[in-house]
Queue: 2 jobs
Job 1
Amino acid sequence: MNIIDEVLKEADSRKNEIVKLVQELIRHKTVNPPGDTSDIAGFMKDYLSKRGLSVKLYESEKGKVSVVATLKGRGKRRFIWDGHVDVVPATPEAWTVDPWEGKIVDSRIMGRGAADMKGNVGAAMAAATILAEKDVKLEGDLVLALVPDEETGGYLGTGYLLDKGMLKGDACIVGEFSPFNTLCVAEKGILWLKVKARGIPAHASAKFLGVNAIDMLNRFLSELYKIEEVDRKLPKEVNKIIDAIQPVLKQLESLGFPRDVMDNLYKRLSVSVGMISGGEKVNIVPANAEAEVDIRILPGMDYELIKEEINQIRKNYNKLLEKTYPNLKAAGIEGITAGETLRFDPSYQKLDAPLVPLIKNAIQKVSGREPLLFMHTGGTDTRFFRAKGIPAICYGAGSETAHGNNEYVPIEGLIEVTKIYALATMDFLGTT
Ligand SMILES: [Zn+2]
């Protein structure tokens, strides 16, 4: 039997071991916030060092512990597998099982983090273990980065490791769940703005003496929504990706998702006002109001330019306010201000990078399926690798229950993905 077949067979025979490992990871309650990963990092370090990997821990801030585990090969190339071990909170009353137990129901492991993404972390640890214990002679290093903080931005996990030079490599798989068995090659960007309106209070019965901050905010937000209508040119590479994801969109269409919803999702910038507050009492003209706005852009769009557009809209609107309400100007009040509270830039992987066909081949060899390409609408740690020029894609098992109640990962998917991670590593680094 050749080494590839041996490795694939080994993943099947280690099914119980892989399931136990994932259950153990789920039992470490790494809810973020606060997202303390010290205990689970200790566990992963022991597990991997016992199996022949050299392991280092890095603590970016108290409790934010990353594991970087290396399976040494002969050459200089390094293949990174990256995954996070922090999870979002769970409401046990809303679950049919204990979210922290890792119970098996209908060939699925259930628990918070099963799909996002301790299942795939377990699979990657298992793949590295198999390569180590089968003594596969890799022509380069396999590096596992098992990180905290992804659910709160990733800056203290993957972002930190890459910025400080503790994590280096030539290509990377981020093991996030990729829906519909796809390979995710791009992701949208996220910008959050806090918009504040300041007016002048007055008795509601004599409202003309004041300036209503809620009205001001409301009208400004209507202006802001106009940025959705602007036609935006995308780079050629991104248009290629949008073409490449069409087969998945067609599948979704056949499942009942309206075409125009998908066109909106994958062709344009979107603005969504998520929170709004203001006023003190119904009979007082409100002096203050604020809104939090979520703006998503496609890869190839630029937040700096979009922020300039928004700023221009804001300036024009403030000028109009000054004209309409001379008392605002007299009081030296700037009607609308806006500030960024969070930003993830969008990112994409050029389709001609060797990594893309390599992972596709691994998926096809293991599963028999030709994987389609897709784009995440949310942000993942993949963007940090792309920002450093390291080719990166997302691939992992899971289910649509990520972040939801009764989250699960199918056991069959875990074994499959263990094989795919092992095969992709061997293929990228080469073996002797
Ligand atoms: Zn995740």
Job 2
Amino acid sequence: MPDDMLLKWRPEFPILQKCTYLISNSLGAMPQAAYTALKEYADAWSSRGVEAWSDSWWEMPVRMGDLVAPIIGANPGEVSFHPNVTIAEAIVLSCFDFRGPRRKIVLTDMDFPSVTYLCHAQKSEGAEICIVRSEDGIGVDLSRLLDAIDERTLLVPVSHVLFRTACVMDAEAIVRRAREAGAYVVLDVYQSAGAVPVNVKEWGVDFAIGGCLKWLCGGPGAAFLYVRPELRATLCPRLTGWMAHRDPFAFQIGDMQFRDDAFRFLNGTPQIPCLYGARPGLEIVGKIGVEAIREKSRRQVARLIELARGEGFTVNVPEEAERRGGTVAVNTPHAYEISRELVRRQYLVDFRPGAGIRISPHFYTADEELEAVVQEIRRIIDTRAF
Ligand SMILES: Cc1ncc(COP(=O)(O)O)c(C=O)c1O
């Protein structure tokens, strides 16, 4: 897709008029249409009151999943919404018993800490944790990860794109090995969905977890969970609630009677306003298509690396272009202080220890913004303005 077609979306994102927005790996820019969507929520609440539940609210955590499904290669009805990735991951963990001989959870030290804390917390339930460490601080060696998955492994909750360095992991190979060993993969697609193509069906992913906050421009409170439909009936989450019940309005006391569809993974009252807020971003990414976003991202990521290296900065990214996601981590002495000064000057970026200043162009980023941010880093260093 030609760049001018993508740049036509810029007026739809008010913040792009005010600053150089290069932080979609953390919080995607808010679409103008989110105002309308959130007003729709307020109007429904105000004018329909409790009837809004039967109009659409009750079904929304799964209906909204139908907007995520094409972005991750799932089918309608297979994705449910949750307040955050950690909760979605906890729902998956609660489907498993760690007291049997198969009790190992294989993680990497490049996965998002919140998810790893949750996995470590399963040790009191009998889980054994195996951590595969990165050797270069950029990626995780695939063969060492695959070797760690054995017949004692129950779960492999790993990231598709690593949050620190945006290194793309070979999800298909991980799923293949896990399947061979009889383990399940919980793929964290938070840093890929909307930026890098994901195909849960083609890869045979068991569980995929992500959110709309970042590359899907959907704001906080809108995370999602895909469960391979063939697995669904075999899973009974202990983290459950009335929305997963076959007959919630019978208000029966006693054992859970699970629904057979994606509602099975819900629990209590959903975060309705967040679901309204997430819709416009999902619709925009759906219209553009992840392939077109990825094509532009590949080009802009390569350009950023070239610009940063041209200034003599260290760039913590994989050497192979195919293994790079949407973010470039630029490291310099005093990188944290420089990142704060960049933000003060309205170049919105962030910083991660061990990686550097994270710069993330998205489909709405103009090429000149890449040049401008690298020049600004140079200016800050040269004038010692940090
Ligand atoms: C790969 C990845 N997983 C998980 C999270 C956080 O998930 P949550 O705060 O929704 O639990 C992040 C957040 O920044 C992330 O980059």
